[in-house]
Every structure is written in C-alpha cells, then in structure tokens.
Amino acid sequence: MTTHATTLHTPRAITAPVLAELRASDDAGRPATAVTDPQGGAPLRCCLRRSEPGERIALVSYAPLRRWAADTGAEPGAYDEQGPVFIHADPCGGPAPGEGLAFTNTHRVLRRYSHDGRILGGRLLTPPEDFEAALTEAFTDAEVALVHVRAVEYGCFLYEVRRP
C-alpha cells in the first residue's frame, strides 16, 4: 500500500455491514467458502492490503456499482456487473488508519462513473504515474461521481473512490 501525507482521495474498502452480507450470501446468491491462503498475496477488499500466508479468506462475487446505486438512488442498468473479490473469511479491522491509496504498485485502470451510474470512461495507469493526480483529473469532470480502481489483468474491482 502506498501512503501519502497529503492524500486527497480516500480508498473505500467494502464496509462491515456489506461484508457480513457477502459472508452469508454473495451478490450472486452463493454462500462464501472460507479457505486458508497458503501463499498470501491476495488483494483483500475488506482491509485494502494483501493477505498473509495462513490467513482465512473467501472469494466472493461482489457488485460494487449495484451497492453504490442502492445507497444513492442511481440506476446503472447494463453497467451493473459483479465479479470476484477476496475478503477475510471472518471480520477484520478494516484498513489501517492513515493509509493512502492501495494496490498502486502495478498497472491499474481508473473507471469513471456518472451520478446515474453510467460509465464515463477509463484511464490506464502505469507506475510510477501519480494516482492522486489521475484521480484529481478524473474528478475535474463534474459528471464523475465515483471512480473504480480495477486490476488490468482480469478487470477485477479493487476499491472505489468517491467525489471528495
């Protein structure tokens, strides 16, 4: 995780109430299956860090835009998608206080969404590009309500950043 003394944008981990729901039944309607991570390194969306060897984790289906839309009244339509995310199998403490933007040490895509949940575009970031600057640029467009940070390899959702 990269720490920034002057972080303008806050990465949003999956919240504790949503995690409790996902551990019972994920957004595809399947129960979570806990496994012991033998090697570590899985990007955990509950605490925005990589798993350690021996930790109990679960791979669940998560619909981030659907969850955001339920809170805001947006209607994402066809942009409502679900995909795999790693979480701790049991409740954890969430992200460490004062941490900056997570998972920025490799190629990422910043996908921008409008207030009504429609995709407005995306941007490929390659380290050492400045994530803070790229997020600031994304939010200069008044139509952008939130940005998803996603993995390039599989398109997996890592976390969201909402308009400051």
**Relative helix content:** 10-25%
**Overall 3D geometry?**
globular
> Whole-Å distance between the termini?
20 Å
Strand portion: 25-35%
The helix/strand class is alpha+beta
Element order, helices and strands? HEEEEHEEEHEE
Query: What's the mean pLDDT score?
Result: 94
What does the radius of gyration come to? 15 Å
Low-pLDDT residue intervals, each spanning 5 or more residues? 1-5
Q: Which strand order does the major sheet show?
A: 7-6-8-9
User: How many alpha or pi helices?
Assistant: 3
Describe this structure as you would to a colleague.
This protein is an alpha+beta fold and 164 residues long. Helices cover 16% and strands 29% of the residues. It contains 3 helices and 9 strands; from the N terminus they run H-E-E-E-E-H-E-E-E-H-E-E. The chain has helices spanning 16-24, 64-72, 131-138; strands spanning 34-36, 43-44, 49-50, 56-62, 83-88, 108-114, 119-125, 144-151, 157-162. The strands form 3 sheets. A 4-stranded antiparallel beta sheet has the order 7-6-8-9, with helices on one face. Strands 1-4-5 form a 3-stranded antiparallel beta sheet, covered by helices on one side. The longest helix has 9 residues, at 16-24. The chain is globular and about 40 Å long. The relative contact order is 0.22. The model is unreliable at 1-5 (pLDDT under 50).
